[in-house]
Hints:
Elements: H1 7-27, H2 33-40, H3 44-50, H4 54-79, H5 83-97, H6 108-115, H7 118-140, H8 150-156, H9 171-186
Helix pairs in contact: 1-2, 1-4, 4-5, 4-7, 5-7, 5-9
Keywords: DNA-binding, Transcription, Transcription regulation
Organism: Fodinicola feengrottensis
InterPro entries: Homeodomain-like_sf, HTH-type_TetR-like_transc_reg, HTH_TetR, Tet_transcr_reg_TetR-rel_C_sf, TetR_SbtR-like_C
Amino acid sequence: MAETLRADALRNREQILAAARRLLVEYGPDHPLEDIARAAGVGIGTLYRRFPDRAALVDAVISNGMDQLVAAAETALDEEPDAWSALCRFVRFCVSMRLGGLSSVIDAQRHEAIRLQPETIRRRLVLTAALGRMVRDAQADGMLRTDVDVGDIGMVINVHVRQSAGLAHLEASVDARLAELLLAGLRAAAEPEFPLPGVPLTGPDIGG
Length: 208
């Protein structure tokens, strides 16, 4: 049976995961856990009670990130009036959260092991299905260019994963501008003037 956390314990866990994602991406996977606990507003003992070692924390950050991606995609589909609006909302969320950032800095073998875990595969399939619905419906509505597929969207949202050193004060502005630049290139109106080379990337092409 899954563990049910008290509200304060759940809040602590979420704060630790958010701090870990930000600091590990910014400073690397070996950043001191004491700094992560301090940034989360908890004691190091609290961190270790939730995550007994660094590997467990990294696993949890990546797992939590996948959960957020799936939730964001499904919520966008449920709440937005059309598939293009849902896709725009999802891309903006991904850019602002930089959820793929940790994957870009951890050890390649560790990342591959996490990627092949059954639960990671399950989440990826759910996400791929949601993105597939956005892509197909937005293309049918004439809003999304026809020479892209789910894999292309996956690559697009992984473009922006780290904030340049010394530019933290521009973070919100950079995120917002980049999201709109990416979406402008995905619009159907961009396709005639800026055709893409090669063939569309599918979900299976990128492991989805």
